[in-house]
Design goal:
two-stranded antiparallel ribbon, mainly alpha, 4 strands, 145 residues
């Protein structure tokens, strides 16, 4: 379809008696969407400011803990890395086999979510841990407490 044909088709559409009403309705919907986008932009900026404050607080606390000798910087960094590893989602499932139903022919994959014991640092399935205020403990470390 050429540009002229497209313009004639559009013009014919808006010559229809209901076209003015449809156009007004679309303009109202556009205004509502624009307001929603503006609201989401404001919310995004507010959350970014909150994250900046939280980041500054964590940096100050980290510096204070290291400065006062409560914990070594390397130990704190490794603990933060471990905590970040726990937040990462598990690996995605493999694609289904070619040619078959994606629901019936796909291999059954058991996804085991792993976590690390906060005392002995052993990595084990979350189903085999005990949750305490500080994090997860393996059965052996939990029994010692």
């Amino acid at each position: 379809m050429t540009k002229d044909e497209w313009n004639r088709a559009l013009q014919g559409r808006f010559d229809h008696p209901d076209a003015a009403w449809e156009l007004a309705l679309m303009q109202d919907q556009f205004k509502e969407l624009r307001l929603e986008v503006d609201r989401l932009d404001r919310r995004d900026r507010e959350q970014a400011k909150e994250l900046d404050v939280a980041y500054a607080a964590v940096r100050a606390l980290r510096a204070l803990l290291v400065e006062k000798g409560v914990v070594e910087a390397e130990t704190l960094s490794s603990r933060v890395d471990e905590a970040l590893d726990d937040l990462r989602p598990p690996a995605p499932l493999p694609p289904p086999s070619a040619g078959g139903s994606p629901y019936r022919d796909a291999p059954i994959v058991q996804v085991v979510q792993l976590t690390r014991c906060i005392d002995c640092k052993q990595e084990l399935p979350t189903s085999e841990t005990n949750v305490v205020a500080d994090g997860n403990l393996c059965d052996a470390c939990f029994a010692r407490r």
